[in-house]
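Quick log. Single chain, no ligands specified.
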Amino acid sequence: MYRREYAVDMSDLGDFTEFDGDEGGGADEGGADSDGGGAETETDGPDDNSPDAEDGFERFEATPAGRDRGVGVLSAADGLRIAEEEEETRLRAYVTANNRSGVRVGSYLLAPYPDDERLFCRISALEYAQEYRADDATEIHARRAMRSAGIDEEDFKLMATLDPVAVLYEDDGDLKRRMTDRVPKPETVVREAEDKADIKTGLKMPADGVFLGHLAVGGEKVRTAAEPPTIDYRLKDDYDSGDPLVFRHTLVAGGTGSGKTHAAKNVLRQYLGDRSYPVETGADRTVAPAVVQFDPQDEYAQMRHDGEYPEDFARRLDREGVAHGGHEDTVTFVPTVGSASYSASGHRAEEVPFTIPFSMVYENPWLIAGSGLNDNQYAALTDVLLPRFRSERGREATYDQFTAFLDDPALREELDESGRVHEATFDAVSRRARGFGNVFDQDAKPVTERVHELVRPGGLTVVPTYHITSSRDTETVVLALSSLLVDQKLSNDPRYDRIKETPLVVGMDEAHNFLTDADSVQARKVIGKFTEAAKQGRKERLGLFLITQDPQDIADPVFKQINTTVVLNLGDEDAISAVNIPTNLESKVPYMEKGQMVVYSPDNSEPVELVGLPYCVTRHGRS
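-> predicted structure:
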């Protein structure tokens, strides 16, 4: 006995998709079997003229009667579970075939309970699964798919994984939210959240406040049946529901070309409208806030002028209560530094020159400490040299007089012999305290005599530094001026009541250049000052508005005081990690288009994705 083996060439089988069941083959062609029973058995099947006669099977309509509602139903196939731990929650919905093309990760859904409460949730994942047991990873399946126009959706299941956000319920006619504490029933119909009140309540978004943008999912605005159909996102700005978030501090982070200056202008413009805040808690008298903006690129003074946008866009802004148009009370506060000259670019705002008087160093000696002084050298400067100089020359003495004071060899010898300052320490201080001659006591009025022009209720003061060529001089000007504002705000015995009594927003573009964490006396003093200012902001009506493309370089103690983080497109992984937003939104940041943003403000709402306004509400760009 032996067995003969044959090799079969699969290519001879041809294309399986061309098989036609009507074409007989082999013994079937003759119409009779070997026993001679040639007559076919007649059945009660469909008439030969019916469509079903073709395959010999009777067909039945499987579509349920009635009209579909919602996008699908909750599935208990893998269990339904609401748990205190997020990773233990299990909530999935089957999405019906006709709804699948419109479903997106991040979309908001509602699942009703048997009573009047509803579960507000967000789609966190979408997954196709086989409806029937089959293996589609085969040659035949692949070739059929490559030659077909598409799939039959009913052959597959689209399952949506849902993250529960809140339970919505009515309380005395008011819509409210609470944490998710109950599981919905299996086969509960889920539908898209299309009511503005449902979405705002579900996401804990305030109805009123400072406008930032419109709610979005995947870069597309969420639309409702209301008018306007978009959902406005606002920051709390009154004391009825806590402190105005402007005084809890804001960070705008975005890379070059992400639209962060455009977005920052649109937000700052909202504080220059009809807003006012009480001078102190419980006070009846309210004062409009002043905005002081440090501007390294000479862009913010353009807010003096109207933006370029269509009239219908302006009418839409009016309907939504968004402040727009140029702000007339805009002043350019120009630092006079050496021979540098400022030439206005793209604006006609009033220019007010000023200089930094050396007298400000007495309160902030780190201004001339540079980054090289160690603790012993800094102590010699603050405890010995500056007090001695002030006692001899008076408060109005100049920087040039101070450097001449340090050139006195008799002073150096006296302090060394007395043991108060070692000669090497004296020499180190003398070297590092030089190089500020272009900053102090220039040919302009001191800023201390122009406080009423610097801080004006309802006014915008822009401090340009674009014309200053030295980064060291720029840093000194910005830190001197911002320290004046912060010190007066925090003081129990202020010298300038105008600063103390005016609600103040201090904007700082390229904040990473000034509030970086470094191992130097100057850096520690600066960070300590701004950290304390941030902590006291609510009490003193002081808000920091920081703008940066390198958030990872901002000192951590300051960063921790930021309550509202607005993140536009960032490409650097370290920068994305530094802004500390939820991972589901973090992954979107590198792919966001210009104007798209993520807002993380725990005291205002759930983390959300927004689309900013397509036009800047003031002038933006060179013209």
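Residues 1-8, 21-46 have pLDDT under 50 and may be disordered.
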